[in-house]
Write a structure and sequence with these properties.
single chain, alpha+beta, FAS1 domain, seven-stranded mixed β-sheet
Length: 312
C-alpha cells in the first residue's frame, strides 16, 4: 500500500507539535479525564522504548512484519498510539496471526500507520482536537466520554511517554481504519446505485478501487434521477467516453477533507477541468451542487455527498 521510501519521507516531514507537558496540565481543560502520565527519560527511540516496556511485544512483532521498524526508529518526530499486548489479544481469535502473514503486509501497514500521527503531540494537544490525520491518510476521532479520553473505540490509558524521536500514548484497544474502497463504501451506503452503475459502464471501477487516494464528490440516486432520460443515454456503450468525462469531473486526486475543501475556491479534477468551490448561506457549493454530507472515509480516499450531478 505504501512504498517504504515514500513512507519514511512522509514520516520525517511530520508536523511540528507543541512541547510535551504532564498529564495533569495537559488535561486541565478536560476535567476528570482519567489517564496517567508516565515518567520516562526519552533517551531511547519509540521502538526501543516500546520493547523495553515489556507490554508491547505484539506491536513490536507487527511493526517488524510490516517493515516499519526502521521508519519508526527514524528522526520523526512521531506520535504513536500504542496498543498493549492485551489490546491485540482482545481481537477476534486468529486476527493477529492472519495479519502477520506476508501476504497481508499491506493491510498490516495500513492498520499500524493508523496508530501514528506525524509530529510530537502531547496529551493536551491531542485532547484539543476533534480528529487527527494519521500516516495511514485516514483520520481518527478524538473525544472525552464519561471522563475518559478516547481515540476511536480505544481508551487512552497512559500519556506522554517521551522518546528521543516522539511521544507514545498507550491505548487499550487496536483501532482499525476503514478497509473498504470508495466503490465498496458507496455500495454499502445504499444510496449510490446509479453512480456505481455509471462508474461500471464507464470502465472506471478498477481505477476507483485502486490505491489512490481520491476525493469523490458523489451524487446520490436522487441527484441522477433529476437528470431524467439523460442518464439512460449516458449509460449506452456509444457514450462511454462522455460518461467517463462527467464522472472524472467528480473526482479530485488526493484525500481532501471538508476542512480543507472550504479553504479552496477551485480544485482540479481528474477530468482536467476545475470545479468551483464556494460557501453560500452556510452551505458548501461545488459548482451548482450542494455538499450535503462530508468526510465519509474509505481505504483509498474520502467521499463528500452532493445533491446534483456536476457537468463539465
Amino acid at each position: 500500500m505504501f512504498a517504504i521510501a515514500a513512507l519514511s519521507l512522509s514520516m520525517s516531514a511530520g508536523l511540528a507539535g507543541p512541547d510535551c507537558s504532564s498529564a495533569s496540565s495537559a488535561h486541565s481543560s478536560n476535567q476528570n479525564v482519567r489517564v496517567t502520565a508516565a515518567s520516562w527519560t526519552g533517551e531511547k527511540d519509540i521502538i526501543d522504548t516500546a520493547v523495553g516496556a515489556g507490554s508491547f511485544n505484539t506491536l513490536a512483532a507487527a511493526l517488524k512484519a510490516a517493515d516499519l521498524i526502521d521508519a519508526l526508529k527514524g528522526e520523526g518526530p512521531f506520535t504513536v498510539f500504542a496498543p498493549t499486548d492485551a489490546a491485540f489479544a482482545a481481537l477476534p481469535e486468529g486476527t493477529v496471526a492472519t495479519l502477520l502473514k506476508p501476504e497481508n503486509k499491506a493491510m498490516l501497514q495500513a492498520i499500524l500507520l493508523y496508530h501514528v500521527v506525524p509530529g510530537e503531540l502531547d496529551a493536551k494537544h491531542v485532547l484539543g482536537q476533534e480528529t487527527l490525520t494519521t500516516l495511514n491518510g485516514q483520520r481518527t476521532d478524538i473525544a472525552v466520554r464519561s471522563g475518559k479520553a478516547r481515540i476511536d473505540n480505544a481508551t487512552i490509558v497512559k500519556t506522554d511517554i517521551q522518546t528521543s524521536n516522539g511521544v507514545i500514548h498507550v491505548i487499550d484497544a487496536v483501532i482499525l481504519p476503514e478497509s473498504k474502497t470508495i466503490p465498496e463504501v458507496a455500495e454499502a451506503a445504499g444510496s449510490f446505485g446509479t453512480l456505481l452503475a455509471a462508474v461500471k459502464a464507464a470502465g472506471l471501477s478498477e481505477t476507483l478501487m485502486g490505491e489512490g487516494p481520491f476525493t469523490v464528490f458523489a451524487p446520490t440516486d436522487e441527484a441522477f434521477a433529476a437528470l431524467g432520460s439523460t442518464v439512460s443515454d449516458l449509460l449506452k456503450p456509444e457514450n462511454r467516453q462522455k460518461l467517463a468525462d462527467i464522472l472524472t469531473y467528480h473526482v479530485v486526486s488526493g484525500r481532501v477533507f471538508a476542512s480543507d475543501v472550504v479553504k479552496l475556491t477551485k480544485a482540479e479534477t481528474v477530468n482536467g477541468e476545475k470545479v468551483k468551490i464556494r460557501v453560500k448561506d452556510g452551505a458548501v457549493m461545488i459548482d451548482q451542487a450542494t455538499v450535503v454530507q462530508t468526510d465519509i472515509e474509505a481505504a483509498n480516499g474520502v467521499i463528500h455527498v452532493i445533491d446534483s450531478v456536476l457537468l463539465p
